[in-house]
Every structure is written in structure tokens, then in C-alpha cells.
Amino acid sequence: MVIKIKQNKMFPYYLILPSFFIIISTVLYPIILTLFYSLEYYKLTKPYDRKFIGLQNYIDIFKGTEFYSAFINTSIIIMVILSLGIIFSFLVALILDKQNKFTSLLTAIAIIPWALPPVVNGLIWKFIFYPEFGFINKFLYYFNFVDTPILWLNSRYGSLIIFGIIVAWRAIPFCCILLLANIKAIPEEIFEAAEIDGASSFQKIKNIMLPILFPTFLIVITNLILIGINVFDEAISLVGFRKLGEPFMVYNYNQTFSFFNIGYGSAISYTITILCGVLGIIYIIFINKRWK
Fold first, then answer.
1. What pTM, to 2 d.p., does this model score?
2. Residues 175/224, Cβ–Cβ less than 8 Å
3. Could you tell me if 49 and 191 are in contact, meaning their C-beta atoms sit under 8 angstroms apart?
4. What is the DSSP letter of 258?
5. Exposed site from 71, 120, 267, 285, fewest CB < 10 Å?
6. pLDDT below 50 — which residues of the chain?
């Protein structure tokens, strides 16, 4: 017995209505509301003095010194993340590409940092760099490299470098998986032909693998930069909301929720969003030129 169901052209749209509602209420509405806030003088400490001020919040951002300080801090973090992320992602991908009985185990171990929540990641590293009983200071003291504990997180640049190391450690597994997937996609015949021609392992990597992986490296670089811009949880877990060495997102949080300056904080949010958007546009243009 065949049951015929009358087709309703609108039925598929009814099914995706809940998704549209979630997207509009949790993504689109906050984006539009934040844009309006960024054009207003709006402090929760002065709720009755709310008024429209146009682009004044954006002007104040670029006239002050705090934004540039946060920009420098974030740039240092990004440089550390890029340096470690690109090199170690590629090295780990090369190691995992070699098939042996430990490959599956090593792959599972390599993914663990990526699976950890950022807050947990920050807390783990906080105990490693803790002055009194941290692992690194204990190690240095045990082998008589130091006489007194090193205050790793008490200086601006020391903190920023450590932020970069920690975030890179979390980001490397994902970047490694991207590179490994594309390495696996390279036909083995290319390497065999190069080997017959007398190419060494280094020459095969330099002249075959790296040019083919170039677009993937661009994706990795873009991903690492965006992760560096959005550093927040690790920084909070390690040093809290202190002003010394605060990256973009901590600076944004402090202005919005610590000082209750909703208008100014919303303008910072949009400024950071525009910076990320510019990076994305540059990446797309570069990729299009590369493949024309």
C-alpha cells in the first residue's frame, strides 16, 4: 500500500524557520544592536544621559593611547603564534604523515590541546608558569639554573610571549590537520618520480610539497591571525583583567563590562570586526590572484 503525501512547496521553508529564528535572535539582532550602541554615548553608570553622538566613539578610540597599546600587545601575540604555529604545524604534519604502528596514537595525542577548552588550557599553563610551585621554576631550581623563582607573568612582554606560546599550542593541532589532509592528497607518483630523478627528502619537501601546500598555508596563517586577535580566555586565566599587556579582547571587555561604557565598547567591537574583515578580504583577493 502506497501512501501519497500531498507536496507542499512551503514545507521545506517551515522546517528551517527555527534555524532562521535562532540566527536572527542570537547573531543578526546583537550585531545590529551593537552597531546602534557604537553610535551612542551610553554608560550604565549614567543611564539617563544616553544620546546619539555619531562616530565620536570611533574617533575617541583612535585618539587615545589604550587602543594602540592593545594593538601592539595583540601584534606581539600574533607574531609569536605565527612563528610557532606555522613551523610546528608543518613539522607535526610531516611526522604524522609517516605511517607506522604509533601513528594513530600520536594523532590522538596531537589533537588533545585542540580539544581542551581555552579556559582549561590557560589554567594548565598557569600552574606551569606559577612562580612558587610551577613546573618550569621547579625544574630550573632543581637543576640549579636559578636561585629564586622567576616571575614569568609579571612583565608586559613576558606575559605576551607566554600568551602566544599557549594559544599556539592550542591552535597547532587544527592547523596540523589541515596540512596533513592536503599532504595526503598529493599523489605519491610525484614523489616517486622525483626520487627516481635523484631528489633528496629536503628537495621533495622544498620543490614539491611546499608549493602545493601554499594555499593551505594561507588558510593556516589567516586562522592563526584570527585566533591571535581573539585571545581572551587564556589571558584571563593567567593574569586576570589587569591593564598590563592586555590584548584586544581583554581591552574591549574592560571598557564594556568593567567600566560599563557600552557605547565605547561597542565601537571597539566593530573596530576589531572590521580589522578581521579586512584580513579576510586580503586573503580572498590573494587567493583569487594566485589561481588566475
1. 0.86
2. yes
3. no
4. I
5. 285
6. 1-4
